[in-house]
Write a structure and sequence with these properties.
The complex is a heterodimer of chains A (about 140) and B (about 150). Chain A contains 5 helices and 5 strands. Chain A is an alpha+beta fold and about 140 residues long. The longest helix of chain A has 24 residues, at about 1-25. Chain A is elongated and about 75 Å long. The chains are: A alpha+beta (about 140), B mainly alpha (about 150).
Chain lengths: ~140, ~150
Amino acid sequence: MLTRVLIVAAILAVATVAALWWKRRQGMVREVERAGALSSTTLGAQRGYHATFVQFSTPMCAKCPPTAALLGRIAAEDPRVAHIEIDAAERLDLARELEIMRTPTILVLDGDGVVVSRISGAPSEQQAREALAGVPRTGTDYSI
Amino acid sequence: MNDIQIDPRGPRFSAFFQLAFSVSALLVGANVGGVVIMAVLLALFIPGAIIGPQATVQGWIFRTAVRPRLAPPAETESFRPPRFAQQMGLTFSTLAVASGLLGWDPGFFLFTGFVTFASFLNSVFDLCLGCEIYLLFKRVTTRATV
């Protein structure tokens, strides 16, 4: 009996550590260096003039729809910012190339389509806004 | 296919049930009692794995006994992620029962342990393991087209 109690305790302890680690990583914004840019053609949707949130989702992802709503709302505030949602299960080519391991993962692109940062897991509104604020400005604010 | 929006607290409540069953099975051990408990849990997973979490006994208890006492949910979610998770639960409880029937005790503890692990994460930490694993699963099982 003691062995079995210890088995249960060990499983619950490992799960607790795993859950706390996972929660801490949730929405973490990391800088990435990746040469080359993602074009609107590759993404299958029009990139933003100043910045783009590229959100990878799957139909099985519970946190994806609220994240899409959040990023869509932030993008709607600025006409130069776009939000593109991609089904990673359909675009496995992109998921492999960009090493998308989980959903939602959000790549934040600058105006040239270069990945500036990467958000793993659903970000809070503050985390999403900070990631957007971290995009360096390319080009000008006006167009002729 | 039509999407059905469900209260996300339902699957989480159900996970407490599943946790109670799998922990009991681990404590009883790889004998007739443990296998019977896992067989009942297996049966509880079947409607959730085929139709969705809204069709389970656990879900029915949540709907009739718990939900009327709660405030309306802040957000709803699709039934698909929890259904995938129920399919994983069904798979592992089937493996556990099969191991128990074949007399392979380590297998019984291993697979019941997986159910315990996932139900615990889902109920206590609101972390759906099946939903997180789905993309990795898809990446491994689908061949590159390039």
